[in-house]
Amino acid sequence: MDFAAVLADIAAELERLRVRHAVIGGIALAALGMPRTTIDLDLATDAAAQDAVIELLERRGYQTLHRSSGYSNHLHADARLGRVDVVYVRAETAEQLFDGTRLLPGPGGQPIPVPRPEHLAAMKVLAMKNDPSRTFQELADIRFLLTRPGVDRDLVRDQFARHGLMERFRDVERTL
């Protein structure tokens, strides 16, 4: 997948449509200093823009594989354009997430909006809760995020507690 080209195209169109967005997932982790293999582009956008985002991706030839109120997954037949997954955030969560983004160098050196590590960790906690098979990868990512300068560990701990996963938080905390 040509992350730089796909991201430049989609981000430009989202900006034209005035849709707030942030890069999450493996690309965001790489921008924060943890490069790892990823096979898709993960974005967060305002939930109110879901129809516009899906329409944008489908106009560009992406097939919508799944759509729910919180997520959508899209795949292009051209491997260079790959897979795009979108998380839709609303209300206070959206305000906090988008207000906390900062521009960091991304694929090809282009600046990308990346949420605070605490917000990325919160998404990973939810992913773990929803799909326990992702636990070990998500915990490794969260461990890295907790080592970023200035991270508020209490906010991350609160997310684990909120989702009934405090034992997992303690597991990570013991390794720091």
Q: Nearest-angstrom radius of gyration?
A: 16 Å
Overall pLDDT confidence:
96
Please indicate the percent range of residues in DSSP E strands (runs of 2 or more). Answer: 15-25%
Identify the CATH class of the largest domain.
Answer: Alpha Beta
The percent of residues in helical segments reads 40-55%
Number of helices: 8
- Structural class call reads alpha+beta
Total tally of structural domains: 2
Shape: globular
Using DSSP, what is the number of strands?
A: 7
Low-confidence stretches: none
For the sheet with most strands, the description reads: 5 strands, mixed
End-to-end Cα distance, whole Å, is 34 Å
Order of helices and strands: HEHEHEEEHEEHHHH
Predict the CATH topology of the largest domain. Answer: Beta Polymerase, domain 2
The CATH architecture of the largest domain comes to 2-Layer Sandwich
What does this structure look like?
- The chain is α+β, with helices and mostly antiparallel strands and about 180 residues long.
- The chain has eight helices and seven strands; from the N terminus they run αβαβαβββαββαααα.
- The chain folds into two domains: about 1-115, Beta Polymerase, domain 2 (2-Layer Sandwich); about 115-175.
- Strands 1-2-5-4-3 form a five-stranded mixed beta sheet.
